[in-house]
Each structure stands twice: as structure tokens, then as C-alpha cells.
Design a protein that fits this description.
It is built from eight helices and five strands. By secondary structure, it is α/β, with parallel strands linked by helices. It has a single domain (2-116, 155-189), classed as Rossmann fold (3-Layer(aba) Sandwich), CATH 3.40.50.300. Helix 1 (14-25) crosses helix 8. It is globular, with a radius of gyration of 16 Å. The structure holds adenosine-5'-diphosphate.
């Protein structure tokens, strides 16, 4: 299996690049943001729990996220591997993911971080707000909270993979195809 963590701040383009990666490498996409939005639309208990955190741009508690990821992995047998998008977002989640992978007799091949300056992130999220319908894309306060939460709670996850010798980064600014080809150069060496 090929298991990749795609990392980066909100608006970095993880969703866009994930789509291209899963097509080329035949991987399964595991986006915790997408899974939460699905629960929200279906009105599940989990969706109701997650909503208040998501709407404010804060992180959903680790236990909720980890349980949901475990279920999704179990529901995806016979895959060539996973691209994790928006997960792990805390060190506790990264540790839980390593435990889950070990249980499956597998491991994370590497993390790839998409680097994009804050100013560009805000521009992209505001543009996306016009069509995404996402409450958390709609105003500056929420966008700023998400970027702050990313720096305080999520950036340490990069260090976690760095210590394991699994950290890689690519420039997330430029055309979608140019960024994709930088990503494939890294993936092909994992
Ligand atoms: P973005 O990367 O644009 O911020 P996502 O779609 O990945 O958006 O996530 C949207 C929201 O869902 C987050 O702001 C957070 O509230 C919640 N969420 C998604 N993934 C996680 C996670 N791994 N841990 C905690 N909360 C999460």
C-alpha cells in the first residue's frame, strides 16, 4: 500500500491535488473535512457534534475524529492505499493514525506539505466562499481562526513526521498542473 498524508493550511489546495493523486495512483481519498460535511448533510449525531466546532473554524475533538477515520479505513478494504487530507491535524491524531496503521500491518510512507503564504490562502478561501456554501469560508474572523488553529495545533504534526524522516514539502503556488507534477516527483520516491 501507498499511504500519504497531504498536509497544508486551509486553502492550500489539498482537495484539488488529492483528486489528481487518487486518479494517478489509484488511492482512496480520506478527507476528514469531507466526511464531517457528509455527516452534517445527513444530520447524523456525529454531524451535530462536529457542526459547532466547524462553523467556528475550531478543531473537532480528537476522539470523534479518530473514531470516524477508523470506521472509514475499515469500510475501505482492498485499496492500494490512502491519501489522508486534513488528517492528522494534531499530534494525538498522528499517534492514533500510526497505531491504526500498525494494527493493519501497514505504515505511512510519507507526509507532503503544500506551502502557501497566508495572503494567498485568504484570497483563495474568499474566492471559494462564492461557490462552496461553507459557513467557515464566509468571513474573515473564521478564516483567521482556522489559520491560527493550523499554526498552533496542526504545524507540530509536521515536526512529528520530520522526526520519523518522512517529511517532504512542495511549493503550493502556481498552476494546478505544475504543483501536481512537483507532488508526483516526491510520491514516486516514497
Ligand atoms: P480546510 O482545510 O479548508 O480548513 P477541511 O475541509 O479540511 O477544511 O475541514 C473543515 C473543518 O472540519 C475544520 O475547520 C474542522 O472544524 C473540521 N475538521 C476537519 N478535519 C479535522 C481533523 N482532523 N481534526 C479536527 N477537526 C477537523
Amino acid at each position: 500500500m501507498l499511504n500519504i498524508v497531504l498536509f497544508g493550511p486551509p486553502g492550500a489546495g489539498k482537495g484539488t491535488q488529492s483528486e489528481k493523486i487518487i486518479e494517478k495512483y489509484q488511492l482512496s481519498h480520506l478527507s476528514t473535512g469531507d466526511l464531517f460535511r457528509k455527516h452534517l448533510n445527513e444530520g447524523t449525531e456525529l454531524g451535530k457534534t462536529a457542526q459547532k466546532y466547524m462553523d467556528e473554524g475550531k478543531l473537532v475533538p480528537d476522539s470523534v475524529v479518530i473514531g470516524m477515520v477508523e470506521d472509514k479505513i475499515k469500510d475501505t478494504p482492498d485499496t492500494h492505499g490512502f491519501i489522508f487530507d486534513g488528517f492528522p491535524r494534531t499530534v494525538a491524531q498522528a499517534e492514533a493514525l500510526d497505531e491504526l496503521m500498525t494494527k493493519l500491518g501497514d505504515y505511512i510512507n510519507g507526509m507532503i506539505a503544500l506551502e502557501v503564504p497566508d495572503k494567498e490562502l485568504k484570497t483563495r478561501i474568499k474566492k471559494r466562499a462564492l461557490t462552496s456554501g461553507r459557513v467557515d469560508d464566509q468571513d474573515d474572523d473564521k478564516i483567521n481562526t482556522r489559520i491560527k488553529v493550523y499554526k498552533e495545533e496542526t504545524l507540530p504534526v509536521a515536526e512529528y513526521y520530520h522526526k520519523q524522516g518522512k517529511f517532504h514539502k512542495t511549493d503550493g503556488v502556481g498552476s494546478i498542473d505544475k504543483i501536481f507534477s512537483s507532488l508526483t516527483r516526491v510520491i514516486d520516491q516514497l
